[in-house]
């Protein structure tokens, strides 16, 4: 998914531009004062959302983590309908996650939404085994211009 984030009073997360590639990938956009970069746009696969949810639950203790939309391919309807339902489900998942203070404190969430690091790279970064700190990884992605969300009128 593609995640967009813009630092303002309210947190905004959008999941859009789904692309079917095996499990599919999504653009997501988010914005919140809690994040390092002002805005970011990253592409994530469904399996990365599954990893994120598992890690959030592991670290959140008794705090419940929102559910993801199902992975089932047994969907009655068109492929487009299934993709749209999944997109909506992923967006709702992220919207609920970023409204939870406990979940919002997890470094993996910040890397998930503000870097294009792979799952192993995110794990290494969080555990201090990567070449950069969490903040450095996020700022590196933002400064590369890949992570900045462009104005709607200037998007290719």
TrEMBL record:
A Pfam family this chain is assigned to: PX
Gene Ontology cellular-component terms listed: endosome
Molecular function terms, GO-annotated: phosphatidylinositol phosphate binding
Annotated InterPro entries: PX_dom, PX_dom_sf, SNX10/11
Entry's localization field: Cytoplasm; Endomembrane system; Endosome
Any one Gene Ontology BP term: intracellular protein transport
Annotated ranges, domain PX: 1-119
Keywords linked to the UniProt accession: Cytoplasm, Endosome, Lipid-binding, Membrane, Protein transport, Transport
Main subcellular localisation: cytoplasm
Membrane topology classification: Peripheral membrane protein
SUPFAM superfamilies recorded: PX domain
Gene3D superfamilies assigned to the protein according to its UniProt record, in alphabetical order: Phox-like domain
Family (UniProt): Belongs to the sorting nexin family.
Name of this protein: SNX11 protein
Organism: Brachypteracias leptosomus
Lineage: Eukaryota, Metazoa, Chordata, Craniata, Vertebrata
Gene name, Swiss-Prot/TrEMBL: Snx11
């Amino acid at each position: 998914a593609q995640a967009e984030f813009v630092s303002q009073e309210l947190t905004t997360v959008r999941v859009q531009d789904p692309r079917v590639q095996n499990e599919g990938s999504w653009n997501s956009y988010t914005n919140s004062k809690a994040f390092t970069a002002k805005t970011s746009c990253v592409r994530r696969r469904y399996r990365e959302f599954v990893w994120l949810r598992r890690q959030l639950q592991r670290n959140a203790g008794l705090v419940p983590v929102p559910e993801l939309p199902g992975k089932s391919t047994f969907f009655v309807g068109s492929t487009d309908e299934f993709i749209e339902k999944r997109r909506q489900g992923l967006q709702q998942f992220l919207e609920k996650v970023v409204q939870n203070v406990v979940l919002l404190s997890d470094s993996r969430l910040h890397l998930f939404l503000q870097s294009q690091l792979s799952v192993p790279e995110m794990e290494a970064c969080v555990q201090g085994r990567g070449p950069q700190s969490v903040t450095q990884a996020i700022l590196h992605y933002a400064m590369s211009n890949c992570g900045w969300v462009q104005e709607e009128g200037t998007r290719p």
